[in-house]
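Collaborator request log, item 7. Partner lab (contact: R.S.) asked for a structural prediction of ABC transporter ATP-binding protein to inform their binding assays.
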Amino acid sequence: MGAEVVIEGLSKSFGPQTIWRDVGFTLPQGEVSALLGPSGTGKSVFLKSMIGLLKPENGRCLVNGVDICSCSEHELYEIRKLFGVLFQDGALFGSMDLFDNVAFPLREHTRKTEAEIRRIVLERMEMVGLSGAEDKLPGEISGGMRKRAGLARALVLDPQIILCDEPDSGLDPVRTAYLSQLLIDINAHLDATILIVTHNINLARTVPDNLGMLFRRELVLFGPREVLLTSEDPVVAQFLSGDKTGPIGMSEEKDQASIDRERQWLASGQIAAEQRVVGVPPQLPVSAGLPERQAVQRRKNRVMGMLDQLPPAARDSVLRSINDQPAAAPGR
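Returned to partner:
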C-alpha cells in the first residue's frame, strides 16, 4: 500500500508575497486525492514543497515519519525514491527516445541489469498504453502520449506516492478522459497514494477519493469526495459548479462590494437556490477486468463515520452516492 503523507502547518512565501500559510491535511494511504484551486493559488508550488524542491518557511511534511522539510540531504535522497512525479509537460528529454526516457530513473538510482530494466520499462509502457512506441522521440508524438510517457517514467521505481501536476493541461477532453481512467486503473494495480493538482472540474468531480481546495492563501477544506462535493462553503460550491457567482473572481478573489451585490441579486430570487446545489456524481470506476480499488471501501468507511457531522441535505446526497456506486466499468 502507498505511504501516508501528513502535512502540518505548512507555509510558503517568496519574499514578501505569501503563497499559502498554515496548510495541514493527511493524504490517506493508497487513495487518490486532488488539490484544487483557481489559477495562481500555488498548487504547483505545493507539490514542489512536498518533494523538497522548495523549502517552506514553516511546517512539516511527514512521509513514513521523516520530515522532508528538515531532514538531511541523504534522508531526502532516500525518501524521494518513494515518489513518482508527473510534471505538467511530461518533462521528457528531447534527445532520448521514449524507452531511454522511461529507463532513466532505473539507470540513475538502481543497479539493475539492462535485461531487468528492459522488462520493467516495457511493462510500464504497456500499462500506460504505449507499447510499440519505444523508439519514438518526444517531438514525434502527441501531447497525450508525452504525458503517458512521463507517467510511465514516474512508475518505474514502483513509487508508494505518485504526484501529478495538472495532468490534463494541454489535453483535449477525450485525452483527459483517457488519462483520468489511467490514473484510476494505476491505483487499482498498485494501491499507491496519488495526489493530483488540477483545476479541471470534471476530473475533480469524478476521479479522486478525496478533495482539497486552496484559496486566499489557505486550505479551505480537505476530505472525502462525498463531503466536499456536497459542501455548502461558497468557495468550494462555486469552483465545483463552474459558476461565476461567488467569492472567486477574475483575479483570485472578489472585493467585498462585489460579493455584497451578488448576495442581494441572489436574495432577489433571480437564481433559485436549488439551481446552485451540486450533487455527487458517480466516481469513475476501474476498467473491466481489473480488481476493485481497495481505496473505495476505505473511503466509504471513513465517510460513514462522518455522517452525523453533515447537514441533512449533504447526508442524504452522501448516502445516495455511496449506495449507487457502480462496481466496475463496462468493457470497451
